[in-house]
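Reopening this ticket.

The earlier resolution said the output was attached, but the attachment link was broken on my side. Pasting everything inline this time so it's all in one place.
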Amino acid sequence: MEHVKSYYAATANPHAPWPQLNDSIQCDVCIIGGGFTGLSSALYLTEAGYDVVVLEAAKVGFGASGRNGGQVVNSYSRDVDVIEQRYGKESASLLGSMMFEGAEVIRDRIKRYAIDCDYRPGGIFAALNKPQLQHLKDQHKRWQQYGNNQLEILDQTGIKREIASDRYVGGLLDHSGGHIHPLNLALGEAEAVRRHGGRIYEQSEVTSVTYGHSHQVSTAKGNVSAKFVIFAGNAYLAPHLEPRLTRMSIPCGSQIITTEPLSADKALTLLPNNRCVEDCNYLLDYFRLTADNRLLYGGGVIYGAREPEDIDRLIRPKLLKTFPLLAGIKFDYAWSGNFLLTLSRMPQIGRLENGVFYIQGDSGHGVTFTHLAGKLVTEALKGNPQRFDAFAKLPHLPFPGGRRFRVPLTAIGAAWYSLRDRLGV
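Inline output:
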């Protein structure tokens, strides 16, 4: 399988290919999945001296890592106040201390390995009504308490300086957020893994995993014998491979378009300071400029990862509601990609067997959390599992209704929150 026909695939950096696995090999750690989760884990582990093999069913960055909105957003899909309400002050303190670390990891990787991925600083949470703005003011206070001093509340005048739209009443600017070309970040990280001696195999879908003293990870044409295994497939993990993981989550589709190139003046009229933006709705819209002055715009969720028939029809009304002056704009690229949603909206990490780890379910915050998670699983393998276990001990609940009813039940719940968004409550 090749990369989906997206803006990112069309503008990917040149790189040497990775082979298919056609042999029986051994390693310390076998990682299933060549997206951000697998690559971050592989890079930390190879830096620490582990012999690592990454098995990717398609191409490096094939899934959400190479298709997402490219926004470096701090925290988790549920903020630290919700974490404290659900899991207590100790969990909130531990998880809160890590909620800005993923973005730091990304910036470190870009600098250390000179990865050309169009990084630009600054991300905005945009409020469409006064209750949302009040929520952002509360978030501002919480994030400051956990050490983020790069925040700025925007009033209605301030948000209009950032976004040429009348939709928003204010916002929160996080200068420690930002945006990237995600596929090029993934490719750059894969090259760094190769530089450290890690082995990456593409077109090498895992067909079975047999647990034992030495775990056996099999593909159609090869086999890996490893002391440790990390499941990092997320929304693209085959359901039959490890049902204990797939029953705890649901893949969801998100749609993105990229316009034809805009003039530099027109692009900076839309977003004068080149920040990325996401609104505060439950089913949120998100957008930013690319390095070649296109508007990249995404939004909406399709539960169960069904491919929509007409992405233009889904996205164009949202885009024009935000930027009416783009009426008639041509879309050069339109694509869909899946992310993995959990019932709690918190990421799921833990252990399945002795030496078998899993990381999944970032619930829309995967760009940053995957980079933190690679660091945490490496700490656990090295004998320091405290931070890994802070996430692992959170309850990982299956979706109600089982495989048959989880999609319609989740969609019903989302419709309720969408109605609340429209009513401004």
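Reporter confirms the inline version is readable. The first strand starts at residue 24 and ends at 32. The first helix runs from residue 7 to 10.
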